[in-house]
Amino acid sequence: MNLLWLAACTSTPPASSKPLPPAQIQKLQQMRLPTKLPVPVDDIKAKNLKDTWGASRSSGRTHEGIDILAPRGTKVYTATEGLIADLRNNNLGGKVVWIIGPAGSWHYYAHLDDHKRGLKVGDYVKKGDLIGYVGNTGNARHTTPHLHYGIYLNGKGRGAVNPFPYLR
Fold first, then answer.
1. Cα separation of 86 and 11, whole Å?
2. Domain spanning 36-166: CATH superfamily
């Protein structure tokens, strides 16, 4: 198995999948993570966001991101350029997209109603590209539709930082 897959995904890639391109990963690692990122949900302004970082969650967890409320089906765009590193459906986040971005940062988009049609692991996206649609999948199925957006600086799911100050 390709080592880049081990670093990028928590599951074994399908036989038809290609490994993530090392040159693009290296390029992203050498870039700086901007201190200002666009709100990744269509028509939502930064002034309307509520900082939900650190709020208590089930099983003694704390919230490692920000919830951005929007109607189901609202477009979700990537806040940075990067590589689609993982697309999946899981119990916690529901339909999710993981993107490796500048400085090796990992950007997590969860509770999506759906991914953008044709989006696949290994795709290179530019800041502002459509990646999915707001929903309430996973453990959010009994909540108002929203996007959970998280930023991790020490690898996939490691080193969470509050995205709220970045979204201005």
1. 9
2. Glucose Permease (Domain IIA) (2.70.70.10)
